[in-house]
Amino acid sequence: RETIMAELDIGKHCQFGTCNQKDFLPFFCDGCSRVFCLHHKGRESHCCSEVSLRKDIFKSVSNTSYLCSFHDCDGKELLPVVCPYCQKNVCLTHRHQDDHECEKLEAHKPRMSATQQLVKQIVGECTIF
Length: 129
Fold this sequence. Notes:
By secondary structure, the protein is α+β, with helices and mostly antiparallel strands. Helices cover 19% and strands 9% of the residues.
């Protein structure tokens, strides 16, 4: 009886130069979309062509900051935090309507006022002997 073992196709070969090492947990470079072993996974170690392009992209992005519009606040955020009611830019400290005195803030109604009135009515109707 002859037993034939099929070779499992697990892992990938490193695509760096002459390395060609088979790695069972290969690394995929998100810059150049190639496969590398543990030793060549870093962009610098496999001379990734996308390294310089990505550095240029980050340099071209301006250091924009969004200032808080709440009076006497010097807070600023890297991303805009806009109140969905008054459309003003605020910092994270003043992101809630109460915190930045939002002009669209509705007056708070007492919670459960109808329930409180009903309880008072029921208690008033009951007499204890």
